[in-house]
């Protein structure tokens, strides 16, 4: 999914630890084959080519991630949108080339985006896309889900205290105390997740501006406001998606969105428009 996963756990024996590590990483690898847009043959990428105008039956994992994504898209007014893949791929290439994307090409790519063009049928567990050349990108929510799932595997194997880290997405089993950049004091967690979004590591500097890896789905333009958002939630799939959506919405509207979710805390460290 474009990042590194690491696991820290506490076990009664070395053998229990080894078995737990293997099972959790196997689950992450399974989800990578399903949810990664970096792998041409992933289930996610097959949807983009096979579900246009025709409902495609998908796995339970992919359906859960897409259903959570669509729910967040509706609640955020489209600030979170997994159909923005054609645009995010252009910005990914722009960061590699260190060159601003072609504006006309960006507009053309944006025409193939829009969460209302993606349709889910819960009873049949299918997905349907309205247009060709659509591309799904669940990078803003899938890592949180994968961290949740890895933690669930560990719990089934008797591991009560563990940490699964997937880039800026963390899932905690048991009680932990952690530091969050935007908080004045340590935050105590118990069976919770934390996701942080910002431009500290992935960005493009072009035309005298710094462009984040997070794209505003309404414009197709990467964010230029330096903002670091950390979200604490009961589950990683919630924290991950909300951190991205709040980054796009800004602090005021983002906090209003977060209030629609139970047991969520939001920490924001705002910077300047670069």
Q: What's the arrangement of secondary structure elements?
A:
Layout lengths: L4 E6 L3 H22 L7 H8 L5 E2 L2 H16 L9 H13 L5 H8 L7 E4 L4 E4 L12 H15 L4 E6 L2 E5 L1 E4 L8 E4 L2 E5 L5 E4 L2 E4 L12 E9 L2 H14 L1 H8 L6 E9 L1
Descriptive account of the structure:
β5 and β6 (169-173) form a beta hairpin. The strands form four sheets. This protein has a six-stranded antiparallel β-sheet. Strands 2-4-3 form a three-stranded antiparallel β-sheet, covered by helices on one side. A two-stranded antiparallel ribbon has the order 7-8. It has eight helices and 13 strands. By secondary structure, the chain is an alpha+beta fold. It has a single domain (5-273), classed as ApbE-like domains (T-fold, Roll). 38% of the residues lie in helices and 24% in strands. α1 (14-35) runs antiparallel to α6 (142-156), α6 packs antiparallel against α7 and α7 runs antiparallel to α8. The longest helix has 22 residues, at 14-35.
Quick summary of this structure?
This protein has one domain: Roll (T-fold), CATH 3.10.520.
> How much is the radius of gyration in Å?
18 Å
Q: SS-based structural class?
A: alpha+beta
Task: Report the portion of residues in β strands.
Answer: 15-25%
Q: In what order do the strands lie side by side in the largest sheet? A: 1-5-6-9-12-13
Major β-sheet profile: 6 strands, antiparallel
In helices, the fraction of residues equals 25-40%
| Molecular shape | globular
Instruction: Please identify, by name, the CATH architecture.
Output: Roll
Question: H/E element string?
Answer: EHHEHHHEEHEEEEEEEEHHE
Number of helices: 8
Distance from N terminus to C terminus (CA atoms, Å) equals: 28 Å
């Amino acid at each position: 999914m474009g990042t590194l996963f690491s696991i820290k756990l506490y076990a009664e024996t070395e053998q229990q630890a080894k078995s737990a590590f293997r099972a959790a990483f196997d689950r992450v690898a399974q989800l990578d084959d399903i949810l990664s847009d970096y792998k041409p043959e992933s289930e996610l990428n097959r949807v983009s080519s096979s579900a246009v105008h025709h409902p495609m039956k998908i796995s339970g994992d992919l359906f859960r991630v897409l259903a959570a994504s669509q729910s967040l898209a509706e609640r955020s007014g489209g600030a979170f949108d997994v159909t923005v893949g054609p645009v995010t791929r252009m910005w990914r290439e722009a960061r590699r080339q260190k060159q601003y994307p072609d504006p006309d090409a960006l507009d053309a790519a944006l025409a193939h985006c829009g969460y209302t063009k993606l349709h889910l049928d819960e009873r049949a567990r299918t997905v349907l896309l309205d247009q060709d050349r659509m591309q799904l990108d669940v990078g803003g929510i899938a890592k949180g889900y994968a961290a949740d799932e890895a933690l669930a595997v560990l719990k089934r194997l008797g591991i009560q205290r563990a940490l699964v880290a997937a880039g800026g997405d963390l899932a905690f089993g048991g009680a932990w105390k952690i530091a969050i950049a935007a908080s004045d004091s340590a935050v105590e967690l118990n069976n919770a997740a934390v996701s942080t979004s910002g431009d500290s590591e992935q960005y493009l500097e072009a035309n005298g501006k710094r462009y984040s890896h997070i794209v505003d789905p309404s414009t197709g333009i990467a964010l230029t406001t330096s903002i670091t958002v950390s979200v604490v939630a009961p589950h990683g799939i919630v924290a991950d998606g909300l951190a991205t959506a709040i980054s796009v919405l800004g602090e005021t509207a983002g906090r209003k969105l977060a209030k629609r979710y139970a047991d969520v805390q939001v920490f924001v460290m705002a910077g300047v428009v670069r």
